[in-house]
Write a sequence for this structure.
């Protein structure tokens, strides 16, 4: 048992190092990891010995030089612990929090994901939709994005996006306005989420969702990094909705990933006179993207029948017996009607405060509990999903015309 | 020969009577005409004898009562001649001007079409596109319709529509603004085209295109007549473009006909916040309609390669040897560079004035000649299609923001 834990710890540390020394999706490392475990790779790089059974070659030699150059300041156990104290945890394949739908990426799965936020990433992404689009959004795109995101969040869906200016940030804001979970997949390290001016938005996402990155803390975004990040947005979610995208928008890259991964690809049409919608029309016309105009179209495209949708909006999306013992004891401590704050729940459940916060996020994403004025309470099966929370004006500062509609 | 002409004359007169006594698409008459010629049917109704080999039945009896009730004031030879003097001609299956693409309607082909206008209907509709949509058009729909119609007309395509308020009339106006041919398929008799307030527009269409109706002169539109008319719009054209349509718009009926006839069905997307575009999005999402955003999308959907399009915009769409001798002599009389008026062309060609006007329309629709300031001239193969004519403000009175773009 100790050996198993030790092996697991070494694997995690090796994956932390891999995120540091290699860019996400590095094809040479993907090839090496097909034959060799992360711990063996890192050990070989550190000692200068041969890379397991990997065939030698000039490409591999150059890659090895690249990796070794960064090995000097790679994170140690102490570094990773310090990051964890700052709320940035490493989630690895095999962890309970690892989103199983990433298996669609095959060998090109991330070696690990850095996560910061209150929700359990796997739970949050079980029912998630990506909403992506151009940074140069129009008032129309902003409006439609916020409406769709709020409507999806109000029905228990997690909204995944890239945290960028324009459509992305509006998707997160719309979900937050409906007190839903939202996940931002960022191209930068999570200690300094990019773009910096979205600091307040990112803090809100940490409180009600999660920031995710393949890049370790302190890493700044690179151009190729944006594109590799996009595949993760598509892979994390059940389907991708493109709201506004010019013909050469990076958001089309995310749409292409969704198509290549055989995930439902949707696009919101717009005026043909608006270049910001040209990419959406291209996706509909040439890529087989589904033309969606409201939340019902999106849910239909995700193959949820009206019955499923009603069930989703009324009760938990997961059975209780999928919960771990700690989450179960936290759930037992959440009252049925009047809300209770996390501190009191922690006392009742006999669990420490940080764990309670994490469990509450997981339970909310799973549809078991909901926020109310005094804290948290059980979500009753016959309740419509509540749409409340802070005044929308606080969350949606740059949009005067967003309507936050209640679940029907 | 005399017998043949006599038989042909009796067939035409019988068809004129059929358009008078039966509504277009009358299922009982369609069934009767499967076994019996129009002349025999009219003779039987007049004399009260049995309807050829048609099986008797209560449905047929009631239909016969309907037809006979209208027989009293059915048009005679003198009536039809008077209508012809007013410019309203009857075009019948088998006539040179009969649009052969109507064969797609099978037994349900019109028994005859009343036509008023300068172009040859068959020639004009060889390369034609229907543009249809809601009467309650928005400024966006008006703008897009006029642009598409002008761009199609500028490339030698005839724009077919229904002459109604909103999208329909704007489609005609856009084509006229580009000096293209346009065909309005009306639900009323052509002596009083409906809607009346489009009098000036209809006169412009008569001068540069054609008004078409299955209804004889003096007939006012009926509600079922609108729907039956829509199948004709779809059948006359190579493909149908829906610009704006609410979910229950009559224009969706035309779109359904285009789909059922296996003609390319296209729709122009719009803001999802606009109910006027909801029908277009439905057509794209659920009916397999192609999302089109500009003239290139439309031509691509009609399976014209860029090479074809360039040829179309440069030269005739029909070979000279498809022209009848009279049209050929008129074509010979049209000068190459400086324009010549119809009266002088009539003298040169040795053809009467009315025939010249009709031939000129046919030759223009066929791409052989073009209007210029002084009348008509040969369209040169390397000329771009000219976009000129009356000031747009005259033709597009209710749209301040229409751009008439030249063919590229």
């Amino acid at each position: 048992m100790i050996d198993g834990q030790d092996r697991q710890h070494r694997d995690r540390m090796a994956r932390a190092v891999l995120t540091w020394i290699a860019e996400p999706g590095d094809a040479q490392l993907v090839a090496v990891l097909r034959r060799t475990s992360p711990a063996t790779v890192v050990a070989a790089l550190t000692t200068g010995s041969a890379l397991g059974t990997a065939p030698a070659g000039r490409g591999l030699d150059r890659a090895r030089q690249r990796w070794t150059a960064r090995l000097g300041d790679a994170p140690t156990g102490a570094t990773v612990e310090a990051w964890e104290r700052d709320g940035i945890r490493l989630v690895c394949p095999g962890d309970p929090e690892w989103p199983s739908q990433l298996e669609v990426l095959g060998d090109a799965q991330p070696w690990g994901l850095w996560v910061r936020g209150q929700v359990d990433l796997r739970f949050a992404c079980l029912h998630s939709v990506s909403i992506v689009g151009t940074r140069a959004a129009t008032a129309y795109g902003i409006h439609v994005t916020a409406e769709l995101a709020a409507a999806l969040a109000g029905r228990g869906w997690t909204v995944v996006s890239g945290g960028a200016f324009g459509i992305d940030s509006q998707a997160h804001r719309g979900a937050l306005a409906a007190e839903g979970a939202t996940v931002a997949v960022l191209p930068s390290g999570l200690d300094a989420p990019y773009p910096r001016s979205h600091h307040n938005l990112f803090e809100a996402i940490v409180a009600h969702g999660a920031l995710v990155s393949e890049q370790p803390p302190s890493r700044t975004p690179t151009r190729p990094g944006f594109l590799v990040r996009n595949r993760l947005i598509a892979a994390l979610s059940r389907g991708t909705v493109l709201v506004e995208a010019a013909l050469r928008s990076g958001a089309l890259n995310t749409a292409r990933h969704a198509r290549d991964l055989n995930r439902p690809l949707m696009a919101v049409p717009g005026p043909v006179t608006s270049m910001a919608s040209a990419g959406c029309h291209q996706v509909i016309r040439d890529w087989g993207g589904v033309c969606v105009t409201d939340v019902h179209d999106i849910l239909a495209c995700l193959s949820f029948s009206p019955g499923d949708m009603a069930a989703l909006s009324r009760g938990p999306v997961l059975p209780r017996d999928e919960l771990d013992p700690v989450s179960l004891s936290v759930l037992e401590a959440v009252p049925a009607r009047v809300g209770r704050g996390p501190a009191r729940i922690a006392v009742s459940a006999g669990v420490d405060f940080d764990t309670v916060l994490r469990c509450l996020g997981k339970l909310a994403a799973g549809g078991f509990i909901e926020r109310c004025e005094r804290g948290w309470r059980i979500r009753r099966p016959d309740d419509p999903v509540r749409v409340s929370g802070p005044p929308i004006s606080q969350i949606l500062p740059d949009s005067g015309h967003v309507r936050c509609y209640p679940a029907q």
Q: What stands out?
A: The domain at 320-378 of chain A is CATH 1.10.10.10 (Arc Repressor Mutant, subunit A). Residues 2-21 of chain A form the longest helix (20 residues). The CA atoms of residues 16 and 80 of chain A lie 8 Å apart. Chain A touches chain B at residues 140, 143-144, 268-273, 277-278, 281, 284-285, 290-294, 297 (CB under 8 Å).
